[in-house]
Give the backbone structure.
Amino acid sequence: MIENYTDIGASTPEGLEISRKSRELISSLIGERSFEDRITQRCVIATGDPSVAEIMRFQNEPFRAGLRALERGAPIFVDIKMVQAGVLKKGHKSPIQAFIDQGGELAESLGITRTSAGVLALKEKLSGSIVLIGNAPSALMTLCELMEMGTVLPDLVVGVPVGFVNAQESKERLRKIAVPSISTAGTRGGTPIAVAAINEIINTYARERS
């Protein structure tokens, strides 16, 4: 892969060379056994932390599920605008929308977080979508409840919220649901991991179509 390496997020020769060298170094540490290894590599690069490889969890072939969803132009829903800003906008036709922009009145009336309210407000659109949650455990908890009830079934869930209140519990709950997913063990996670995971899938999708 390194010999023919491309990164649609690198817009200059220097940027591409930096990306290629980073991938070469991390590939030698992590290996190149599967598509999921490529996601792990990018997440390690995004965080500058090789130990991130030890906490990555993949279920039900999420890489291939993500490629199929992008091929259909499936919408991408994210928890906050920081995640939305980081997702590659080129190489695919999927619209990107943030939960935090939706359900403000619902959040106030129910006394729940704005991201949870956004999940509820957009629940009719979530089946067949890609969902990225990098910061809001409450949003992942709400999504898991809807999936457990059979109300929604996304094509892919990247659930990597960070923190000490319900972050670990929400990800453990996600891993018990039969949906293609990418998550992290424990309290670690965050925007860089969520964005890196989906951008690796987008990059592969764009490369395969070129």
